[in-house]
Amino acid sequence: MGPTWALQLLLALLSRPPAAAAYFSEERQPGESPLQSPTVLVAIIARNAAHTLPYYLGALERLDYPKDRISIWAATDHNVDNTTAILREWLTSVQRFYHYVEWRPMEEPRSYPNELGPKHWTRTRFEYMMKLKQAALKSARKQWADYILYMDTDNILTHNQTLNLLMAENKTVIAPLLMSQAAYSNFWCGITPQGYYRRTAEYFPTRHRQRLGCFAVPMVHSTFLIDLRKEAAQDLAFYPPHPDFSWAFDDIIVFAFSCRASEVQMYVCNKEQYGFINIPGKPQSTLEDDNQNFIHLMLDAMITGPPMAPSQFIHLPPKFPDKMDFDEVYLINLKRRPDRRERMLRALYEQEINCKIIDAVDGSAFNSSTLNAMGISMLPGYFDPFSGRTLTKGEIGCFLSHYSIWKEVVDRKLNKAVVFEDDVRFEGHFKRKLTRLLSDIEDVALEWDLIYLGRKLVNPSQEEAIPGIRNLVVAEYSYWTLAYAISLQGAEKLVNSQPLTKMLPVDEFLPIMYDKHINEEYKEVYPKRDLLAFSVNPLLVFPTHYTGEPGWFSDTESSTIWDDDLVKTDWSGSQKTVKASQAGTSRQSFGSASRDEL
């Protein structure tokens, strides 16, 4: 037996069909089909949620998960609004898509004994909530569901892969971290031996997604997924509380204790931006208060994305936008920024504010010859105080855009108008606060020309408060023209100063006109500096982004020098766009930071 025989044997073995391939056709088998997705029961427990339900249910519809593997368990009770009708309308339309639907409405009573309002949590309400959650858990177990997803009706899952991503983590109890308008979220990082919230160093880095991952925590609530296939999950319960339970009587605390007693670790995951959670109302809060908080949350979602969208199966009542108490509301937007236009139009509509779009002047289209032909010249000797550069084309376009509005106010003889740029973020209850401010100004007959609604105070100082008017101060040297109110008298003063023949950035021009600019040489060019300028405090409007943040872009700062297209500029040269740090300019939260974590 030489090498030739060995080679023949090897060739014979290689020529044989693999073991999986049958010799006879009758033995050939098709490949195995893939496993079906795990079954999930979604628990919907709604009370006085008519304002959030369309968006909550819309997010549920858009989850990228087979609907025939999802069962819906829905209950509603003690409503004074249209919650029951909305849920019934939705369930009737979608039940054919889902595996199973269980519907538990309670028409009466409409309130709990001794409650201060529809957002008040009494002991009776806590107990009933525990019973409802336990009933949903019992139903899931009876159906042999693999998972149960609890999701409060003011929690909006905008990431359509949330279910799949949470399942992939293979945890018994896991929550997707949800963002709110402030520090509040749906988890705790610390808990006291008595079951109360404890602040820890880990909370803010987790909440703000400065550290990413899935983290073991002592408490998750509002939206979380339970893997019912896990052996330890058999002992989890909401009601009755565990025999050893002695903590505060609250459904989320009762369940956290149950997890601890069953040796089940809770987790919160912030690897993705999964969605949003509304800040809970105070016991005396009204449904309108809660609705305004939710609108504010929607506006934030439009900026950080993806935005919320309502269910296609629910009819939304129409809104009735108005101009508040102004004669005109202006929105400045570059045509080549349709994304900003769309967001701002929706943000204003959600707040029921009507506006007129002003197509911004695109400074990039100008050259020095064009500007000379228009009679436009720069202020001699002007240089940016930080970078030393002269005006950019973007700053020229910005000035001309605002100037066109002042001119229109004068030509149309509008008593007062409000101006918005297209990169603003609104503070909560914006319309209500601004309307109240105008009413207070009218009550004391304050004469005014311009009121900043958003700005950057250059030199933090104690500004003079206006007697008899809440939240109004005399404006000191400020940057930015994000949003402001202007009177007819104020517009006339600005136009009559003939600024196009001695132009500088608009947010440098305004402080000159109210005589608070720090450069005396610039002020000498404008001898009549009697603009009556004020500012709201705290502010009502902020930039959507600050320099260095993802999504930041400025058409004024990121441009070229007005008379030299070869000299490009960006935000690193000017500190105007850096986030303000002084008191009164940062966004206001709903109460103290520590309270908002709860």
In words, what does this structure look like?
With 598 residues, this protein is an alpha/beta fold. 30% of the residues lie in helices and 18% in strands. The chain has 16 helices and 24 strands. It has helices at 3-15, 53-61, 83-94, 123-142, 162-168, 203-207, 251-261, 287-304, 338-350, 368-373, 393-412, 430-444, 488-496, 506-513, 520-525, 593-597; strands at 40-46, 70-76, 100-105, 147-151, 155-157, 173-176, 178-179, 187-188, 214-217, 219-220, 223-227, 266-269, 275-277, 328-333, 356-359, 416-420, 424-426, 450-457, 472-474, 478-487, 533-536, 541-543, 560-561, 564-568. The strands form 6 sheets. The chain has an 8-stranded mixed beta sheet, sandwiched between helices. A 7-stranded mixed beta sheet has the order 15-14-16-20-18-21-19, with helices on both faces. Strand 14, helix 9 (338-350) and strand 15 form a beta-alpha-beta unit. The radius of gyration is 31 Å and the shape is elongated. The N and C termini lie far apart (83 Å). The relative contact order is 0.10.
